[in-house]
Amino acid sequence: MRSLRPWIAALMLAAPLLAIAAPALKAGVFEPAYAAPEFPGGLSASSAAKGDLKLANFRGKLVLLVFGFTHCPEICPTTLATLAQARKQLGADAKDVQVVYVTVDPERDDADRIRKYLGAFDASFVGGTGKSQPLEALRKNYGVIAKKIEDKAGGENYGMSHSTSVFLIDREGRLRALMPYGHPPADFVHDLRLLLAAK
Amino acid sequence: MKIRARRIVFLLVGLLLAAAAGALAWAAFVPPQLDSRDEVFEIPKGTWAQRMAGNKALEILPDRIDLTLGLNDQLLLRNLDEVPQQFGPVLIMPGQSFRLPFEVASTYNFDCTAHASGQMRVVVAEHPQTPWQRLQWRWLRWHHDHNKGDAAKAHQHA
Fold this sequence. Notes:
The complex is a heterodimer. By secondary structure, chain A is α+β, with helices and mostly antiparallel strands.
């Protein structure tokens, strides 16, 4: 028993240090983490997958959920390029990371258009579209804002103001974190590695 | 007698000046510290019920939040209410919290339906390094704590 005392003392001393040293995510973290809201029925995927687009289809992978529209001039291209870069930097681990891009502009974004758009960034990205109602329901469940900005010339060239953060959903389907717009690929890689390593 | 009274006055004034100079020197040269890096905002229990009862003036998050790197550089939002709440840029479940760290000094704009402007601004400043920056930080912090105390009292009375 006496020989164990130094080890027990060392463990007691190290425990708080280990807790402090535990790396934190760069993203904003939800505590506790609850199940991410499942997608409502009626959403179709831009990929070859048949049936409704469901979050459960990606169970076992980390899901990066993004809301946007393919006519977006700046935010969406930047975010998608960042995520594509992050996946490249992850190397072999990228197979466990799925980017899902859901449109906030179903009027113009059909499955084919989203597929072509996403393909320019990373062929593995999956897009989602559908009728306005299920898309609105999905946005409400995630607290996502989307608002049409009318074309001043009265044409079809309207814009969309929308939430710009990326939702990080873990392998078990729990909403773990939210990365605000503007973080570099390295921050995503940092967080994805931590979440991939977590049980 | 008159001379003695004058000496006492001089002594008291001298002591006051020395104390003021000491406080100023402390504020300028001692690096500021806070107990926690979290800047906390909470939705109290019963907020939703109050809103339903017509209390529209219930604003918990200010339009602008000031943070400082290395001191209070984590925004911590807590929902103590019994329903999910849109709190700044996120939807937070009852009893859940959201902690958002900042590592770069900048101005961050978030869409937020809770504000009339539709935006919430987080201004993150560099860690105060110089005596003048420390004085500024302490003054603003005092002002901030003072205002927060008043806001908390107003919320209790709402």
